[in-house]
Amino acid sequence: MAVTIKDVSAKCGLSISTVSKAFNNYADISAETRELVHRTAREIGYYPNAIARTLKTNRSYNLGVLFQEERGTGLTHSFFASVLDAFKSEAEKHGYDITFINHNISWTGMTYLEHCRYRNVDGVCVVCANFYAPEVVELVASDIPVVTIDHAFSNRSCVLSENIEGMKALVAHAAALGHRRIAYVHGEHASVTENRITGFYRGLSEHGIEANPEYLVDSVYDSPEAGAKAIKQLMQLPEPPTCILMPDDHTALGALAAAAELGLRVPEDLSIGGYDGSRITQMTHPRITTVVQDSKCMGKQAALYLIDRIENPRTAGSEMGMIPTKLLAGESIGPVPERK
Amino acid sequence: MAVTIKDVSAKCGLSISTVSKAFNNYADISAETRELVHRTAREIGYYPNAIARTLKTNRSYNLGVLFQEERGTGLTHSFFASVLDAFKSEAEKHGYDITFINHNISWTGMTYLEHCRYRNVDGVCVVCANFYAPEVVELVASDIPVVTIDHAFSNRSCVLSENIEGMKALVAHAAALGHRRIAYVHGEHASVTENRITGFYRGLSEHGIEANPEYLVDSVYDSPEAGAKAIKQLMQLPEPPTCILMPDDHTALGALAAAAELGLRVPEDLSIGGYDGSRITQMTHPRITTVVQDSKCMGKQAALYLIDRIENPRTAGSEMGMIPTKLLAGESIGPVPERK
DNA sequence: ATCGTTTTCGGAACCGTTTCCGATCTGCGG
DNA sequence: CCGCAGATCGGAAACGGTTCCGAAAACGAT
Q1: FRET pair for A22, CA 20 to 30 Å: which of A135, A237, B27, B51?
Q2: Could you give the CA distance from residue B304 to residue B268 in angstroms, rounded to a whole number?
Q3: Measuring CA to CA, how many Å separate A200 from each of A173, A246, B194, B290?
Q4: How far is A98 from chain B (nearest CA, A)?
Q5: How distant is the Cα of B40 from the closest Cα of chain A, in angstroms?
Q6: Distance A4 CA to D26 C1' (A)
């Protein structure tokens, strides 16, 4: 069925090796021959078989993407989906396809690394996972090129979002509007979270606000329910906060609903901040004040680092890309209400 | 670096073919030998190389996923992301990985079909594309197993969402609340849209409501901006609708904001309906009344059809899965306001 | 005409598997 | 003790390419 290199070689009366070399731009092929080969290839619709090529060259032009499985969200998570989309586009622009690396149920029980070898991926982008899991560590310690997103390993390239600055800017924005009782409901522990907490505290101290431990609430990402719970908990404090910063936009959306349930107007009675800069923040009423993470840039940069590492194994070093964040002021953080 | 079948054969003093057969459960291998092979394989960490296996067997255990490229949304679209996620999970459960099929810029200009052959995918799931594009038709007409989502080709398996019934149910819900001036802002033309329009008209006629051509607005999916524009246009009619159904939940969210801008309360002054049943509908205030599409089920079913077709080429026919939809009543469609 | 050099091409091994087919060995009835 | 069937295993070709290396041809210089 499929047309192979043999068909091309037969059709133009050349040897297989000559056709192969013509296709791979070897120097010892005359211009006319090269032209002939390409022409007949086009005629009979020949494309080199990636599988055979990979077997021989050990280059698959396939990049692995490691997504966490623990939480159900997967591809549904808008921030990661956006990062992935950009990664994919950039990879494809360079001739790479992508495959997901994971070990779902009923699979032969391969580790991430084994899966990578099994599929011969040229490199892996670890987008979102428990970076401390032994399996991830094993992968990162292997000889396979790796780039990580939002987590830095030594001697591995990574792309980081400027979380400290982003959070600081958000706190500064709230402080500028007079808020001093600012709470932060944060997500699971990870580099991202730690940086945001750092940014949160720095933002507070830069505005001379004393940190109140009760205002730092342990919660999870991407859970409007948990967000709502946190809100209710915070608002029952003897001295409730006037501004609550949520771990992400989805949770902030849930917080808006929770506030409405409590009979609180946003931002007149309570200010709420999000994080990520997803599209929905601009569709709500009030629009959610958030910190935009440049997910497109992050995904693209990760692809560039990884491909560079793959194609220039000796010259390419381990880069660290810091992608700036940007405050997007909506209406959900308003002036602090008069003290009653 | 990688450990091959040779290492296993050397380690247990058996021939390569024996090891291979032991791994593939051939009958002419004694139980002890099989056990020995598996044990030493586990010891030295051997996994068969998928590439070599594919080259020989012409089975890649890789499924292609065809996503549209025209609109920027890509993976970001929550409905498709959800379908894809379910498809992926089910595929992985059966030992398949997935790769995206497309023809992005700077690529050698392969068609979808050529890309499929290039990567030796065992089958393709066409999730979201222009089903009338020549390239898609070429793929569907090929010998590669194909399953389509939300579009039916003859003699190809497909998974359809019950759009007619879903839309009818939504109209019925509005009618039950007294609405008779119901508008529908629909997305681009595709099977989905046509079915929904059909359902819309049937719903109207079943409740004795005469269709008003001005109440059917041509718009696009997933565009809050376009949604907002449509709302404003509709509300300027001499007899504006009391209930507006949007093409999807994101657009409905945009419509909510647009209504707020116009000073209209939802649902007191204007009712708005969504479609898809995405998570955000339950996080807004008011919650958006929508039609839930069972995206998980759709993705899973598509994977099952495709794999069945691949693994049982003769017995498997072309199936058509109709996935039921469910009305999810929020608060965004309320009783019709008193005629002023 | 001879020789060395450069250009251009083909032969063949190899990548890691699968699988057909033949070889060996065992047990058993006659 | 022979022959034969069944059980086990190994040899080798093949999948579709790449790439090393040698051979042939062409060419220029002497």
Answers
A1: B51
A2: 45
A3: 12, 12, 50, 38
A4: 6
A5: 16
A6: 32
Give the residue on A whose Cα is nearest the Cα of B114.
A47
Other beta carbons less than 10 A from residue A273's beta carbon:
31
How far apart CA A93 and CA B205 sit, in angstroms, is 50
Chain B residues lying within 8 Å of A119, measured CB to CB: 50-51, 97
CB-strand contact A115/D, under 7 Å: no
Candidates B24, B47, B56, B49; CA nearest to B120 is B56
The string of DSSP letters for B153-221 reads -TTSEEEEE-HHHHHHHHHHHHHHTT--SEEEEE-SSSHHHHHHHHHHHHHHHHTTPPP-GGGEEE--T
Which 3 state secondary structure label does DSSP give A220? coil
Residue A118 · residue B47 · CB < 8 Å? yes
- Cβ pair A249, A281 in contact under 8 A: yes
Three-state secondary-structure class, residue B151? coil
CA atoms in the 13 A half-sphere facing the CB of A247: 26
Q: Which of A23, A108, A95, A110 is nearest to A62 (CA)?
A: A95
A76/B74 CB distance under 8 A: no
Helix axes A50-57 and B112-119, enclosed angle (nearest 10): 40
pLDDT at A207: 97
CA max distance for chain B: 92
Residue keyed to tokens 């007149």: A268
pLDDT over threshold 90, residue B53: yes
A190 pLDDT band, cuts 50/70/90, is confident
Q: Which residue of A has its CA nearest to B142?
A: A1
Those residues whose C-beta lies under 8 Å from the C-beta of residue B216, and which sit 6 or more positions away, are B183, B184, B186, B197, B200
Q: What is the pTM of this model?
A: 0.93
Q: Is the CB of A202 under 7 A from strand D?
A: no
Q: Are strands A290-293 and A325-328 parallel, antiparallel or unpaired?
A: antiparallel
Q: How many helices (H) and strands (E) does chain A have?
A: 12, 12
Work out if B33's Cβ lies within 7 angstroms of strand D.
Answer: yes
pLDDT in tens, A202-244: 999 999 999 999 999 999 988 888 889 999 999 999 999 999 9
